[in-house]
Amino acid sequence: MSQGVAGTQQGLWVASLGLVLLLSLVWWSWWASSRPNSVDVGLVTWVTSAAIVGSSEIHAAELFMDDHPDGPIRVIPVDDQWMPERTTQAIEEAMAEGMHYFIATHPSNCAEASLHLFADGRALMLNAASTSPLLSGRDDFFLRLTPDAHHEQRAIAREVARWPGRRLLVFQDTGNRAYTDPAFATFVSELTALSDWDIVHRPLQVSDFRPDEDRPLMAEPFDALYILAGSYLPAIGNIAQLFYVNHPEAPILLTPWARSPAILDTAGPAITRLILPSQHPSRKDDPLLDAYFQRLSARFGYQPHDMTINTRRALELLNQAFAAGHDTPATVKHYLLSQGPHATSLGPVLFDEFGDLEALPFVFLTDLARELR
Fold this sequence. Notes:
By secondary structure, the protein is α/β, with parallel strands linked by helices. The chain has helices at 3-33, 52-67, 84-96, 108-114, 149-161, 177-194, 211-218, 235-246, 261-267, 287-300, 307-323, 329-338, 368-372; strands at residues 39-45, 73-79, 101-104, 124-127, 142-144, 167-173, 198-204, 224-228, 252-253, 274-278, 363-365. Strand 6, helix 6 (177-194) and strand 7 form a beta-alpha-beta unit.
C-alpha cells in the first residue's frame, strides 16, 4: 500500500471515529438528563483526540451502561486532553457542577497536577493508568488500579536480567517524565544489581521521533532495546521497526502502556521481536478477558487498547459501592479499602491501606499479533 493511500485511509478512519464519538457524546447527554436519582461519574480522558486513546475508554463506559441499564451510574466525559494544565481545570469545573466521583486514564503528569483536588474528601478518584510513585502511600481520596512505577520497573528489570546479552539501548520518552524518570531510575538500579548489562541511555520526546537523527545510534551493536514510553504513542512502533532493521534477532521490550493495535500497526515486521510486560494475563489465556475484547470489537468496529480493562473494573467497583448503600466519597473509599479483594468481571481488585493496588506478578507477552488482533 502506498504511503498516500495509507494516509488517506487513516485520515478517513480517524474522521469516522471522531463522528462516532460525537454521536456517542450526544447520546450520553440525552441519557444523562433523562435518568433521575443517578450518580454522575466523570470519565477523565482525551475525549477530543478522535483516536483509540479516549475512544477506547468511552466505549468501555458505553458497554458498561449497556450491561447495567438500571444501575445508578451515569458516566459523563471530562476532556482533559491529557494535558496537565487542562486536567485540573476540567476536574474543577466538573466538581463545581456537583460531580464527586471520577475515573481517569490520563498519564502520570496529569495525575500529579490534579492530585491536590482529592486531598479532603470532596471527591474520589479511581485512577486507571498513572504510575508515578509520588501518587503512592498517601492517605487521600486518590485510589489507583495499576501498580506504581517502582513495582513495574523492578519486574521488568528482573526479566531483562534473565536474557543473554551485554549491551542494552534504552529510549526514554521525555514527554511524560513524571512516569519515565522514576521508572528509568528504578529500572537501572534493579538491573545493575542483578546483571552486567551495559545500558546506553537515549532520552527523547517519542511523539516527535525523527528516524534520521537516531539511525547512526541504532546501527551500533546492541543486544536488546527497551522503549521506556507509554501513553500508547504510535511512534513507539516506528522506533521498534528502525531498531529491527539493524538488529532483526534482538528482543525489543515495551512498557505495559504500549498495549495498543496502533503501535502494532506501525511496528511492521518488528512485531515478531516485541515483548510486552502486562499486569493482565494474555487474553488468549483468559476467556473472560478475550470475550470482553471481542464484545468491544463487535460493538464498536475496532480493537481498543487495554485501558478499557481498568475503566471497566473501576466502574464495577463504584457500582458495587453504590449498590451497598455508600453515597459519599468518604464512605465509598472506606468500603473499597476495608473490603476485598473485590470481584469484577475482569478479575479481582485489592487495595492496600492507602488505596494503591496490591499488584499481581507481571506477565511478559511475546505473540502480540495474536494478542492484539
